[in-house]
C-alpha cells in the first residue's frame, strides 16, 4: 500500500478514501466539520443514539475565588439523556432504574469539587534534595498562581488557574500534582501548557537544589485510568448522585425487594475489596461511555470517569442508594463538544456552552446511578435469574 496523505484537506481525505476502497455510510457525511477534531480524518463511525428520561433535582454551582464550589439553588427537572451505544438492553435498563427513582421522588445530585491535575516529576541528586524541593514548591503555590496570571508567555492559558500543588517524594524523585480549575472545558490541553511553563520557567531556574531531569507527566495521578490518588482526592468533577427508593417502587418496577438489594450491596462491596478493584460499583462505565460518545467527550477519559463508589442502606420505607464519581472528566466547551451532533445532544440536555459543566456532570452521575439501580435489581433476584435472562434474550448470537 502506498503511504497515505496525512492532511485533512479535501483532496487528502478523498485520496485516503480511494486508497482504502471506502464508500457508503463511512464516507457519506461531510467531513469538513470534523477535520479539526482529529488527524487523518477519513470517514465516520455511526453509532445509534437512544434516549432515556430522568427526574433530577439539579443544583446550580458557582466557583468561588478560592476554588471552592458554592450551591446557589436547586430545581427538579425532567431531563432527556442521549446514550450512544450498541449494548442491547442498556437503555431499557437505565430507563427502568430512572422510572423507579422518579416514582420514589427523583434523583438528587451534588458536585463536591472541581480539580484537574497534571502529575509532573523532578529528579534530584538524592532524597534530601527532593525533600527540599518539595517544601520549596509547597510554600510558593500562591506566588506560582500569580506568576501564571501575570506572565507574558504566549503558550499559557488564562482559563487554567493553579489551585494547589501536592508533592510526593520517593527516592530522589519529587513528584508534583499540579491541581487546576479550567472552567467549562475538561482542560487537559490548557493545564498541560501551564504545568510545562511552571516546570521549565519557574521551578527549574528558581529551585534551591539542582534538578537532573524534569518530566511533565510521570503517572502519579492516573490520567485516563483508575487510580487510588484520583479515587480519593478527585480529578475533574467529583459528583454524588443519590435517591431513596420506596418499597413499592422496588417491588413493582424493579421486581425485587429492598432486603435483596441490600444483600447484593453487602456482597458486592466485599467482592470489590477482595479483588483490589479501584471502584465499588457494578456497571457505571456503560452509562458513562454512552453519554460520552453522544456528547463528544474524550473517550479515553472513561477510564478515570467511571471510577465509582456506590452505597445502599435500608431505611424506613425503602432503600437509600448513592454513587460517588470522584473523577468525572467532562466539558461543555472545546474539543469534541463542538462537533455537530455532539453539540445538538448537549443542547437537548441544556448543557451546551459556557456555564453548563456542573449541570452536565450531575446528569452523567444520575444516569449512571439509574443503570446501577436496574442492573443491581436484576442481579439481586434469586440466582440473579433476571440478569441472566436479560443477557440471554438480548445477547445476539447463540
Structural description of this entry:
The structure is a single chain. This protein has helices at residues 10-20, 90-102, 127-138, 141-150, 188-206, 228-233, 247-252, 258-275, 284-295, 302-305, 340-348, 357-380, 385-394; strands at residues 49-63, 69-84, 107-124, 161-170, 173-181, 211-215, 236-246, 309-315, 318-328. The protein is α+β, with helices and mostly antiparallel strands and 398 residues long. Strands 1, 2, 3, 4, 5, 6, 7, 8 and 9 form a nine-stranded mixed beta sheet that branches. A hairpin with a 2-residue loop joins strand 4 (161-170) and strand 5 (173-181). It is globular and about 65 Å long.
Largest sheet: 9 strands, mixed
Number of helical segments? 13
Large-scale geometry:
globular
Work out the helicity level.
25-40%
Low-confidence stretches: none
Q: Based on DSSP secondary structure assignment, what is the total number of beta strands?
A: 9
**SSE run:** HEEHEHHEEHEHEHHHHEEHHH
Radius of gyration based on Cα positions: 23 Å
Strand content: 25-35%
Mean pLDDT figure: 94
Instruction: Report how far apart the termini are.
Output: 38 Å
Structural class: alpha+beta
